[in-house]
Design goal:
The protein is of the alpha+beta class. Helices cover about 25% and strands about 25% of the residues. It comes from Herbaspirillum rhizosphaerae.
Length: about 350
């Protein structure tokens, strides 16, 4: 195993920041709550800096295992567009964040719910209850707004925002991101991934093809835990794709997830969403020209994007593990980091 961590996954090159924000226009913001038994937060992904209700973008979602409480997926599946930023948070905060998204959309478009249709908030969740006191209901509308207003093309990773209290492979998990560049014909496209990693059994952990979790499991002095986590996987690209094609991209996140050792356990909510920033869909039709012009890559050309999705998803999960700090939270529960265990393993091997 290489001493360089985290290893680069696959042969495709990463973008300049190796994050979802390498896709032009995409930004990410966090609000982190970190005090005592409150270890949680909100992460927001903005596909573009404009008004998403007015200028929607094509999107599609796939559910690998549906043990989850997300909001907004039904309409995304039906209409194939996003009309709010994407929010990530803890399970009990979904309602508060959805309300905050709705209020923000109404502030920009006061006729929503009156002379305009209602808006579709989009909130994904994972259960951070091992480290965070879910029953405190600590996430409020202001925290969503803070994350939204601080969205940037510099993506902070690890135990931040929605990832603050998350666990992954019985270690500290959280937010991870990565990107890959592909060339199709004469055009270069970027695929970016961002994950909220909160799943897995340590014994199953695979790092760049090496089943390292089998060794690390013997170093953990605790009883085995059942699989009861989740992962949210977001994919962005600037390739021109429609919702049907984006659904196919979203499905390929499962390849990257499986490579890390996940079996999509019974209690795991494994959900992926993909969107394209190449074109927008106006909320209102052009009465002078009602037929929309929409460009799409040919299906036969999608394989490089599929590779990029799988590689960037796997990389993002590893980045979440390698960038997270140790966290102590509710009732003294704590999670160590992958870096700590790897350092101990190196010491043992050289003893």
């Amino acid at each position: 195993m290489s001493n360089k961590y985290p290893p680069h996954i696959g042969k495709l090159p990463a973008g300049a920041g190796n994050s979802i924000a390498d896709v032009p226009g995409v930004t990410v913001g966090h609000c982190t709550l970190n005090y005592g038994g409150i270890q949680t937060g909100v992460t927001v992904v903005r596909p573009h800096g404009g008004d998403l209700f007015r200028e929607k973008i094509p999107a599609a979602a796939v559910t690998l295992n549906g043990f989850g409480k997300s909001v907004g997926l039904m309409q995304v599946e039906e209409l194939g567009v996003l009309e709010t930023p994407i929010a990530l948070t803890n399970t009990f905060a979904v309602g508060a964040v959805a309300t905050a998204q709705t209020r923000a959309a109404v502030a920009d478009n006061p006729e929503i719910g009156r002379n305009l249709p209602s808006v579709n908030p989009l909130v994904f969740e994972c259960n951070d209850g091992y480290l965070n006191d879910l029953q405190a209901f600590s996430v409020e509308e202001q925290h969503y707004l803070h994350a939204l207003q601080n969205a940037s093309d510099v993506v902070v990773q690890g135990a931040v925002g929605a990832g603050r209290g998350m666990s992954c492979f019985e270690l500290k998990g959280g937010i991870g991101s990565a990107s890959r560049k592909v060339v199709i014909g004469t055009a270069e496209y970027t695929v970016g991934a961002l994950v909220l990693a909160n799943f897995g059994k340590l014994a199953d952990l695979i790092i760049a093809g090496e089943p390292l979790g089998r060794t690390l499991k013997g170093m953990q002095k605790k009883n085995a835990e059942p699989e009861k986590g989740s992962i949210i996987m977001l994919i962005a690209t600037d390739a021109p794709l429609d919702a049907r094609q984006l659904r196919r991209l979203a499905a390929r996140t499962g390849a990257g997830l499986a490579r890390t050792g996940s079996v999509y356990g019974h209690g795991s909510g494994d959900i992926a969403l993909a969107f394209s920033t190449a074109q927008t869909v106006p909320h209102l039709p052009d009465t002078a020209s009602p037929a929309m012009q929409f460009n799409c890559l040919h299906d036969n050309l999608l394989d490089p994007l599929f590779h990029a999705v799988a590689d960037s998803t796997e990389q993002a999960i590893l980045n979440a593990l390698f960038t997270s700090e140790a966290v102590k939270g509710r009732d003294g529960n704590q999670r160590r980091t992958l870096n700590e265990l790897l350092a101990e393993l190196a010491t043992m091997e050289h003893a």
